[in-house]
Design goal:
The structure is a homodimer of 394-residue chains.
Chain A lengths: L6 H8 L6 E2 L2 H14 L7 H13 L5 E3 L9 E9 L1 H4 L8 H13 L5 E2 L8 H12 L3 E2 L1 E2 L12 H4 L7 E4 L5 E5 L4 H15 L2 E10 H7 L1 E2 L1 H18 L3 H13 L4 E14 L10 E8 L7 E7 L1 E7 L2 E4 L4 E5 L17 E7 L8 H7 L13 H4 L7
Parallel strand pairs in A: 2-5, 3-4
Antiparallel strand pairs in A: 1-2, 3-9, 6-10, 7-8, 7-9, 11-12, 11-17, 12-13, 13-14, 14-15, 16-17
Helix pairs in contact in A: 2-3, 2-10, 3-6, 10-11
C-alpha cells in the first residue's frame, strides 16, 4: 500500500468534494471514546486502536472523513476490522500491515481498487482501525458504519438487513496467513467461516469485508454513525474537563445528534462474573453473565446482564429493561469511561445506561437477525423507550 | 470450464508429447479399484468417483494420462479432491461443477491457467475425481500423486515433505460457497482451515490445491503412482475373472510394479467397532478402533486397528505389525474388494495385508510428519518389512 501521502485529498478532489473533516489525534480520541461507549460493553481496548491511528498520523499521513451523500455512486468501498475475541487481542498486538494485507487481497479477489473505508461498527478497536487503514492506504473514511454499536457477529449489520452481503471477506493474521471467504448471500456461513479462521489463527483475525459501491453504501449504512460517536465522545470529554456529570452530557449529546432519549437505569457494583471462555465451545467469543448489586438510590436492587462480546440484555430485579439490538453501557460514573466485558472485574462500580438502537437496526429484518430470539431469549423485542417509562433518566 | 473437447490432446501436441494413455471406463475402473485398495481403509466410496468419471466419458470428453517426465518444467499443475469425512459423502452427493469451480477460483487467485491435474492421493473418490476434473477441463492427468496411499490430512504428502506447500488451496461446496486458504509455508494451518471450512459446509468440501509447476511436480511427487494403482486394480480384476487368489495377485503386482514385498498377515471377522463420529470433537474425520477375531489359521488371535479416515496401525495379539506411513488393507478374501473404515460393519470378514509405503513417503521428514509419533503413538517408526519377517505372506 505505497500510495503517495496526499492521495486521500486527491481522491476527494477527483470526486469534487470540498467539504471533509481532517481527523487529528484529538478528533480520533473523541470518536474512539464515543464509539467505545456505543460499543455496548464490547469493541475491544481503545488503547490498541488509538495507538495504531496515532502512529499513522505521526508518520505524516492524512486521515480525512467525508459525508456519505457526497460520495459518487460508482466507487468501491470496503470495511476493515478485527474479528475475534477481544480478550485475546490484549495479548496479541497486531502488526501494522495486517489491514493493508487484507485490503490488498480483497482488491485482488474483486479485481477492483478500494477507494474508501467504511467502519464496520462502533468499537474501541474497530472504529480507529478504519481510520488507521484509511490513513495507511491514502483513501478517505466515510461517515457511516454498519451498526452504530458493536455486535458479536459479522452478519449483524444494517448492510445485511438491507440486502447487502459480507462476501467476499478476506481474513488474515499477523503471520500473513490469508483466508478468502466467498459465500454469496449466506452471511451466517461467512461469519462461521471467518470465526473458525480466527480461532485457527489463535483467536484473532483482521478482515477486509463488505465491499459495497458508493450507492449501496448510501442506501444501507448507518449514515452519520461516525458523527454520532464523535458527538458522544466530545460530550463526555467536555464533562470531564468541566467537571459535569458525564452521563447527563452523554444523554444530551444523543438527544442533540440523534434526537433520541437514552435512560440512566441503574448504578451498582459488580458482585459476580460468570465467564465461559477459552474453549472451542464458545466459538471465539467472550461469553458469560454479570451481576451488579445496586448502590445509592438503587440499593437493594440487583441487575443482571448477559454478554457475548457485547452486553445482550439487562434485567433489574427480574424486570427486562433492555433487549437487543438496543444498546447497554456500564459507565464509570465519574469519567464516563465504559466498563467492557473483556476487562471488567469484581468490585467495579458503574452507572448503567440504555440507548435506543439506530432505526436502520430496528427493521423487522433486523429484529429477526439480531433481536432477542436470535440470541436465545424467549421474548419479543420491545423498544428500550417502552421498557423504560419517561423519567427513567434519574 | 467450457473448453473444446479435444484440448487435452491439443495441449499434449503443444508439449510435443506423443505417448499418452487414453483412459476409458475399463481403465478408470481398474485404476479406481487399485487406488481404493491402496487407500488403506479410507478414500471413500469408489462408486461415487466412478459414476462421476463415467458421466464425463459418456459426454464424449477425453481423459488422457501422461508420464510426468514428459511434461514441460514451466507448466502449471494442481490437484483437485474431496476433503472431509467420507461417511458424509454418501449422503451428500456432489454436483458436477464443484471441481471446476474450485479450479477456476484457484486460477483466478494464482492469475494463471492450470494445465494438468495431479491426483492428491489413492482413493475411491479422489483418484477418479482427478480424472473427471481433467476430462471436464480438457486437460491431461499426470501419472503421479502426493501419497500413493490415502492419508487423513492435507499436508501429509510427499509434496510437503519435499518442500512444496498446499497454499493457496480453494475449498468450495455444493452451494458455490468458496473459501481461499493461503497460509504460505504453514501447511498444518492450511489443513486446519480447510477442515474447518468443510465442517462449516456440512462435512464435505471440494478443493483445488497444491499448485505446482511441472518441475516441482517431477521433483516432489510419487512418480508413477497412477500406474501402480492401475497394476494393482488390473491384477485383482484378473484374479476375479480367472478365479485366482486376489491377495496373491495383488502382492505379485506390487512386486512387479514397485519391486516391493507386501505381506498377508491376518484373516478375521470384525467383532467390535468403536466409532467416535459426528461431533465437533473429531474435527471432521471418521475416527475409531476396530477389533477382528482371527479365523482359519489365525483362529484364537485378535487384531486391532485404529483409524482416522484411514487405518493407522495394526496390532495382532498386542504385537505391532504395521505403523504409518506403511499401508494396511482389509480385503474381502474372495473378491479383493477393500473393506473401508466408513462402511465396515460387525461380521465383515477379510484378509489383512500390509504394504511398504513409497520411498518418497519414508524420508525422515515424512516419518516426522506422518509417522507413528505424529498420530500419538509412543513408538519409533519401523518399516513393515522389519515388523513382518520373510515368509509373512502365508
Amino acid at each position: 500500500m505505497n500510495k503517495s501521502q496526499l492521495s486521500a485529498r486527491e481522491i476527494l478532489k477527483e470526486w469534487g468534494i470540498r467539504n471533509f473533516r481532517v481527523i487529528d489525534k484529538q478528533a480520533i480520541s473523541e470518536i474512539t471514546l464515543g464509539a467505545s461507549i456505543l460499543a455496548t460493553g464490547g469493541g475491544g481496548d481503545p488503547e490498541i486502536g488509538l495507538l495504531w491511528t496515532y502512529k499513522v498520523l505521526d508518520e505524516g499521513k492524512e486521515i480525512l472523513m467525508v459525508d456519505p451523500m457526497d460520495v459518487p455512486d460508482e466507487i468501491q468501498t470496503a470495511s476493515t476490522a478485527c474479528l475475534g475475541a477481544a480478550i485475546v487481542l490484549t495479548e496479541k498486538p497486531p502488526s501494522s500491515d495486517v489491514l493493508s494485507l487484507a485490503m490488498e487481497r480483497l482488491e485482488t479477489y474483486l479485481g477492483r481498487k478500494i477507494e474508501a473505508t467504511i467502519p464496520l461498527e462502533c468499537g474501541g478497536v474497530n472504529s480507529p482501525v478504519s481510520y488507521a487503514a484509511a490513513g495507511e492506504m491514502g483513501i478517505p473514511v466515510i461517515d457511516v458504519d454498519g451498526m452504530n454499536r458493536a455486535f458479536p457477529e459479522l452478519q449483524m449489520t444494517s448492510w445485511v438487513t438491507h440486502g447487502m452481503h459480507s462476501s467476499p471477506t478476506v481474513s488474515v493474521d499477523n503471520r500473513k496467513n490469508v483466508t478468502v471467504i466467498d459465500t454469496g448471500d449466506d452471511d451466517v456461513l461467512a461469519e462461521t467461516l471467518a470465526r473458525r479462521a480466527a480461532m485457527a489463527y489463535g483467536g484473532i483475525s483482521w478482515i477486509a469485508t463488505y465491499p459495497l459501491t458508493g450507492e449501496q453504501m448510501k442506501e444501507t449504512s448507518i449514515l452519520g454513525s461516525q458523527s454520532i460517536a464523535w458527538a458522544v465522545g466530545r460530550a463526555v470529554m467536555r464533562a470531564r474537563q468541566e467537571h459535569l456529570d458525564p452521563i447527563v452530557e452523554l444523554l444530551n449529546s444523543l438527544k442533540e445528534e440523534r434526537n433520541v432519549e437514552g435512560f440512566r437505569v441503574f448504578r451498582g457494583k459488580i458482585v459476580d462474573i460468570n465467564r465461559d471462555f477459552g474453549s472451542e465451545t464458545n466459538k471465539g467469543f467472550t461469553l458469560g453473565t454479570v451481576t451488579l448489586d445496586g448502590i445509592d438510590s438503587y440499593k437493594g436492587q440487583t441487575a443482571t446482564l448477559d454478554f457475548q462480546n457485547e452486553w445482550l440484555n439487562l434485567r433489574v430485579d427480574g424486570k427486562v429493561l433492555c433487549l437487543p439490538p438496543d444498546l447497554i453501557a456500564i459507565l464509570d460514573s465519574e469519567t464516563g469511561e465504559p466498563i467492557r466485558t473483556d476487562i471488567m472485574k469484581y468490585g467495579y462500580r458503574g452507572t448503567v445506561v440504555v440507548i435506543p438502537a439506530h432505526e436502520r437496526m430496528r427493521t423487522p429484518k433486523g429484529i429477526e437477525m439480531f433481536g432477542p430470539r436470535h440470541f436465545g431469549y424467549d421474548l419479543d423485542y420491545m423498544p428500550v423507550e417502552d421498557l423504560n417509562t419517561a423519567g427513567g433518566g434519574v
